[in-house]
Write a structure and sequence with these properties.
4 copies of one chain form a homotetramer. In chain A, the strands form 4 sheets. A 6-stranded mixed beta sheet of chain A has the order 2-1-10-11-7-6, with no helix packed on it. A 4-stranded mixed beta sheet of chain A has the order 5-8-9-12. Helix content of chain A is 48%, strand content 15%. Chain A starts with 5 loop residues before the first helix and ends with a strand.
């Protein structure tokens, strides 16, 4: 079975020569950098759980390519059951990390490319699908992490890629050689870019004639020559430099985003999956987005579980857990969170088989799922802040608590109502802060808003998928639109005499 | 195949001797009474569609008792696939009737009783399950409609049944005979009471020692001696007396509620499914409610489709269909409606096998589903009223439109912006009125609120099912609650000199 | 003091020869018609309260034209205090009638025309203002009710009035004579049309060159030759024909809407207030709408008080008044209702003096007020339905309750948990039904949505009034946009060693 | 005129010897500490604007004690006009600082104490009011900043102060001397504690017999011996240490919270305003909270203006300002923000005169105001994040942008769609981040939630002030509860024959 331990995973990452810039410097021992490490721990958890028998059913799947058990993150979904299990696995990981765990983009990318390469070959006689299957096998057999990279900087949004003043605003082919292509450009907002072995690049919008050089999809090692990363800044990121587990809130896990730059990177043909077939760019975007909008029904409800739990613990430590309004707020948070999960499950259970043989989610319901994700985590966070109380944002620093003179005073005055040590009360409040205002809020709030497409993108898809004509026909039939009207049958309302 | 045509169904109803009171009178030809008939047409539609090949997959199921194809409304769910199909069938019928179609209560009752009678037999050595299976077979083989009757008047809610001043506030056994029992009491808010062949009675709350006479479940023919019905009044009900399809909005279909009275009704033992086993009353209530909360994810989203379609048609006839705010409101309505459907699907797909062999929905998600149903139809209705415009509630009556002198004036001034005849514009607006303020609003709004339990009932179940302890453990683990704290590792934040 | 008693008012109405069509017939004794009378009672209440000393401060004002005390409904606002008192008077009347009381449109019309005629005279040398002041004096001295009529049928909304296929889609001048003008057309959705002495007509949209015949404002007696009314149908309207106070919910009061037709009506010049000055049509619409959007902050919060009270009484009669979720829902309803009232007060308190000397509300806040009115009454209604319980829509008719045989059974089973007679419990539930689904729902819900302009109209005004440029400047100043950036000051985050 | 310049204010602060602890160290040059200084700048702005003629009407008031013009922050409100101007002043300062500007607590404290000391004297013959007037005069004449300190740590919330295991959980008198009292305890969450000249202490809850030592109100200099401060940690606080205006978002202004400790502080009798009169503690809390709940209708709408403006600028720089959904979101943000302002204005305009002669806000509407503040800023923030786009949380640090090698790459790829320099685009996004996730989010979100009392505190007040009995009477009157019912008048609905 090709499964790495989490230690082997970390070592395999360390063996890469990633070019990462953070706070203006190139990071040397990036695997152990305190700002970056929590995001590596998240992915390590996807390895860790895969080796625990109790999670085997969710974390592993049987590859249709090799017949072997593989980590589900490298699996091509073979049934609606697979789709549902994907969501459950994501919820589990959200629960274990309290964070975006970043390995989903690659999974969603391979599943989208799987069907699109097949259909492109069917239509254009290209040979991408076989190539791509080899690549998936390579990922599975080596138990690798792939980053799925989609969002280009886009430049002037009113112009197509090939009319941009600066063509680098979209990743594009700058040279076609016998052995491969050379690409240039950048991908922005790359979740999980600096903890992957491989990068899978896809176009970011539907394309048309003239955009040929931009309709390109390929994969390459994360440390391919010419690839480098500029690490994104998160709220409260430097607390991780303070050696201070307390104020970080969630000391072990965290997300990560980066600007990924392709400075004339060479890609051999066997790693190219689209190159000029402009009419397939749109399908690829839509399918990747569809899978990723499903994903959020899983991962965000998992993180939601942590936040609900943290609010419940905070309420207990504040001694207010029995107040009816507190109980009701926890119910509301649970209700909203399970609604997200329901949408994730529903678009999976309603999935369907593609011509390539793999399974795809229901596109309408996946967009509905994500649209809810752009709303409910914000309300859950608001309720968590309500329950946690103001101390969450007014309490002194860990440095104060650690101080010999000031520490005992802080401890005395911030003791909660129960027997809990003050430090534990503060830990839980810092976890709530982390999820609502701090580093994890980037994943739980802003990523919920914009990840897998901003809210308006889902609304456009919902409109397109809503089959409004059918609904109009239903209404017309019941209203009797177009039927002859028998005026002579109309009677005048009146009432008989009393009794 | 034991399937009636819709005409045969209506005839079979007409053969019953139901005792129905409406507006203070006993109704004679009740099957053809204009106030009642639309509710019969709804159920007739469940027969009609069952015979159309295109809907066979949803409308029919293979009985696990007889191996025959039966109407799904009489089926015991054998898989999660069955559960999902139930929801889809309900959405279909909501679309076709634009109304509560009333046959679900019986389906949900037999599925709840199926597992509860089994477990009661296991625990108490009673013989209810075999009996009940015979009864289900009887329903299936004769393709009958059963009403599931649960809600008692309840009297003083702070007292258990056996301590009520008037014991009739809960249906109860007044006599135990060799051949059967005699029951007395009433069931309120009975949806679909006056268009069923059979009545299935269940207790309405969890019970305890002393409530033995009240812990009773049985079935009887709808026209059993001693059973009578007092028909509930709906908003705009008497418009149906005006021979006036226009102002009714939905001339063909409608819902129905009645107060069902049991005035010393005899029930033979073979139709008794619980009698004194107080500890099973609670499970029966919970499971029936669970199934019924799932149901609303189907039927209400079907009715929602009609309302969305009606709003879209109204917008076109008003000439405003291209306004961005109109399009956006239709998207929002669709989004909310599909969220309801997603919850219906999710609690079905996550269903599980009971000891009796049948399948039950996921209890947490079914309650989440219904909780959303207590909210979103109201917002969908509000948006429909927004799109429809004020004319919906200010336009003259059909009698004015039919009048020789006034009619042409109404027609002239109420013409919409397009080529649509005025009458069709008014028809669509009356359909919106019907669903938001009229007879169908009782089903689409108030029943969404209170049917299958009022909102607070779901919140209690959500709290109970939320596994909050697990969530608290997740949060504590990530926050590091209880871990020793290494104060010495704490560093002070600072910044190096520029550059 | 020129104040009529309510009886004198009713008699003065009866003296008019209104041409009203209802259910296809011309209504003869319209003042006593059971469908129409409740709306007359509402206006009668504006006379009744004006003579009660305790309400004098709100109901009366000192005319700036005559120095006499007049009914505030005929007053031109002279201060922000007047504007606030207007809102309070409206809340009082909403409380007393539980209904739209319909006299506001005339008050808002005279206040809008007062400043517009002044400004038109200033700009164009016309003589409207003096004329109009005479008219206001006439209304005040005779204590009359005026209807303010604005909304034309509009026909094809993409075309201006003078390009309509049928010019009658907008009220317009068909003949200019020495002694006056002849007008033709119709006004739709006319609240309070059939219980006014006078009609004040205004254009419904901003106009431009070519629309001269349509830019017309005038007044005429409600029974001027050529004026007739087609009465609008409301949800549950015919219950009022059943001699049945119970099922009506609110037996005494109700709203009213009509299609008002002008079939070549002659208007003498002294009653013409705009005629061809197209550039003033827009201001007139905006100011009337502004005053009317303010009005809703008063009247709807008054009706909201009734609905909140009804829900509270229903909860008591159901025996659930102490449940924490019930209490919390009543708080939420109160909170939303008082937010509406706050907005009504705020746009009044922030009003300002016009060149004509009268006071006008703050336009931005009045639109904000109305926008909230398109939302909160729906949520208040939803919560009321939640608290009331399903019985509200499933209970038998008054005819059943009055029946000798069935009545006692209904009474027995529908008794609440307390000592309240069943009839009183049902009365309160019918009042909730009346406000949420019945005749009063037309006023409380649909009129809240569309009266004084549909929601999108307010959004356009909010955008126009929001002074977004100022907000952008604030943000740019704080963000430092355009400032030179001193890169050399940037330091790298780090942390000193522990402790 | 006793008005300091902003420089004089800063100097006067620097002259104090405040004992402030931050990150475990006592801060020496605290007035110039980069973490603290922005909060001092906020208060400096209250001095700055007070000397600008264009703001004189809002910023200054005429003291009723001295007849001199004083800064409104030191004024006792003499009319509802004063109350409204207070709200406008707060909105202005929110706009200018984009932050909590912290001087309101003192203003609200003196206005609450003014009437309570008067009433206490009346009831108990104490001499607090004259003393307190002297103190107000002292503040006015020296143009001082006072902090209003209310919230105690509270310990076990189920016990009254005098039964706490540790009496220090509430500030209390430990010694009564001839010349004054000695107090001990702490106040938590103190907004603006470390930029005030004076501290005004009030009790935090209603008290009863036995709590005599805890029912204490007094003032003292901010640097009185025994007073010290532990500075609260805010999200992203240490970015201010990076010499890096860009990543801070709002480089100049910010809020501040601290734990304020009273370690046996001596207070002379002339600065004591309550000492043992337990029955006045509740009124003091309620009035202070009332004034402070009003305040939020002003300040938060001012900060909201900044956030709306920032979102609008970000949209322009992203090139999406013309998209209809963007425009609609800006309208929604404006609508919500103006609703908050309306509530602030309304509770002011509806204020009333107290026996002491000063004016107090309407208590119901002030609580409604604050309740909305616990909701709408969160939704405004959510919409701002939607409009801003994901770049707000994924963009590289200022250190990267400042780097010679990486900087130009960041600049190239993060250029917006317009001619705006990249740096300005990033500045605006960092401002949005600051307000939604960063230091200012503590004020705009969490303080909106918990400042002036958590949401449930307002709900309790709304319930108490709602006059529900009056509402119930209104409903009963309209429903006809208790009226005799004339069954004989009931008619049966029917319909005449057609036509």
């Amino acid at each position: 079975m090709p499964l790495k331990t989490s230690d082997e995973f970390v070592q395999s990452l360390a063996d890469l020569d990633l070019q990462i810039y953070l706070f203006g410097d190139k990071v040397e021992d990036w695997v152990n950098h305190p700002v970056i490490r929590p995001s590596i721990n998240c992915i390590a958890m996807t390895y860790e759980l895969a080796r625990q028998p109790e999670y085997e059913d969710l974390m592993l799947a049987t590859s249709h390519l090799t017949g072997e058990k593989v980590n589900r993150f490298t699996h091509i979904h073979q049934s609606t059951e697979d789709l549902v299990k994907k969501v459950k696995m994501q919820r589990l990981l959200g629960q274990k990390t309290g964070s975006c765990f970043q390995r989903c983009v690659g999974m969603d990318a391979i599943n989208a490319l799987y069907s699109v390469t097949y259909e492109c070959d069917e239509a254009r006689g290209t040979g991408y699908h076989a190539r791509f299957k080899d690549y998936v096998k390579f990922l599975q057999e080596n138990d690798l992490v792939a980053d799925g990279a989609m969002t280009d900087p886009k430049g002037d949004r009113s112009l197509p890629p090939h009319q941009q003043a600066d063509p680098d605003m979209y990743v594009h082919v700058v040279e076609r050689r016998d052995d491969g292509i050379v690409v240039r450009g950048a991908k922005a907002h790359q979740t999980g870019a600096c903890n992957s072995h491989e990068i899978i690049v896809m176009p970011t919008i539907a394309m048309r004639e003239g955009d040929d050089d931009f309709a390109v999809s390929f994969s390459c090692p994360a440390d391919a020559p010419g690839v480098f990363y500029i690490y994104g800044r998160q709220s409260c990121d430097t607390r991780k430099l303070e050696g201070n587990e307390l104020d970080v809130g969630n000391a072990q896990f965290g997300g990560q985003e980066a600007l990924m730059v392709f400075d004339d990177v060479f890609v051999p043909w066997e790693r190219v999956y689209l190159c000029g077939e402009v009419e397939f760019a749109g399908a690829l975007v839509e399918r990747f987005a569809g899978f990723h909008r499903q994903s959020y029904g899983g991962c965000k409800s998992g993180v939601g579980d942590v936040l609900i739990g943290a609010a419940a613990v905070a309420a207990e430590m504040n001694g207010v857990q029995k107040a009816s309004h507190i109980k009701d707020k926890l119910i509301e948070m649970t209700h909203l969170n399970e609604t997200l999960y329901s949408c994730g499950v529903a678009c999976s259970a309603e999935g369907s088989r593609m011509p390539a043989g793999n399974y795809q989610i229901d596109m309408l319901l996946a967009n509905v799922c994500k649209q809810n994700v752009t709303r409910f985590p914000y309300e859950i966070a608001r309720l968590a802040e309500d329950i946690a109380g103001g101390l969450m944002v007014t309490m002194p620093s860990a440095q104060d608590l650690a101080d010999e003179k000031i520490g005992p005073i802080v401890e005395k005055f911030l003791a909660g109502q129960c027997d809990t040590p003050t430090i534990d009360r503060l830990r839980v409040l810092r976890l709530v802060e982390n999820l609502t205002l701090g580093t994890a809020a980037v994943g739980y709030r802003t990523e919920s808003m914009h990840g897998a497409g901003s809210p308006q993108a889902q609304r456009i898809m919902i409109a397109r998928q809503s089959n409004m004509d059918h609904k109009k026909e239903l209404a017309k039939a019941l209203a009797g639109v177009g039927k002859p009207w028998d005026k002579t049958a109309v009677k005048k309302p009146t009432a008989t005499t009393a009794g």
